[in-house]
Specification:
Chain lengths: 114, 115
């Protein structure tokens, strides 16, 4: 059974600071996704990482994937209040016959304070 | 970004009643998924639907659940006899590409409350 673990689960940051969210998973997969969820809202796709060593950046967020270590990171640079949300990583099941079902971590609730 | 709408946005039902949740992708897609999120918890996969049939389902997706595309566009999730623990946010997701190289886009969700 594929397990996806995120840490930390809660993160309180000051504006302007940097931090990293970690996502470990338990079995082979070369596809990992990061989503953002605002309270009461749907999931917004942030990044799709499709190969070992993939790195993607959008604004103050940068995501990377190390498939050998089964680890993805979401790095936040110079946090601003607008980044406050819950961030989920999700690993894709891509074994033979699977249609790409996503297994999610528990999410990291990020709160950025002035 | 592909658009997906879901109806209703909220539904309150009595335990034991049937509910049908609808997902309407704006354009044609091959891959459809249902996920649920119990309040404050992680998102859980329920079922995937490809080429008009179920391709995979989780342990949560028992005999009380069913999915179909009745008219080739709407994608529905039916819960035959709801239980209290079915209360959750239900998300439909689509994958637009022919190959699994794109992300899954999530609809706005249906909040289901079973009393």
């Amino acid at each position: 059974e594929l397990k996806v673990e995120q840490n930390p689960l809660f993160l309180s940051m000051q504006e302007g600071k940097n931090y990293t969210i970690y996502c470990n998973y338990s079995t082979t997969s070369d596809r990992l996704y990061w989503y953002r969820q605002d309270p009461g809202k749907s999931l917004e796709s942030l990044f799709v990482l499709l190969s070992n060593g993939a790195v993607k950046q959008e604004g103050r967020l940068m995501a990377s994937l190390d498939t050998k270590a089964r680890l993805s990171t979401l790095h936040i640079t110079a946090a601003v209040h607008d980044l406050s949300a819950t961030y989920f990583c999700a690993v894709e099941l891509n074994y033979g016959g699977s249609q790409g079902n996503l297994i999610f971590g528990k999410g990291t609730k990020l709160s950025v304070k002035p | 970004e592909p658009e997906v709408t879901q109806t209703p946005s909220h539904q309150v039902t009595q335990m034991g009643q049937e509910v049908i949740l609808r997902c309407v992708p704006i354009s044609n897609h091959l891959y459809f998924y249902w996920y649920r999120q119990i309040l404050g918890q992680k998102v859980e996969f329920l079922v995937s639907f490809y080429n008009n049939e179920i391709s995979e389902k989780s342990e949560i997706f028992d005999d009380q659940f069913s999915v179909e595309r009745p008219d080739g566009s709407n994608f529905t999730l039916k819960i035959r006899s709801t239980k209290l623990e079915d209360s959750a946010m239900y998300f439909c997701a689509i994958r637009p590409g022919t190959f699994s190289r794109e992300t899954q886009y999530f609809g706005p969700g249906t909040r289901l409350l079973v009393l």
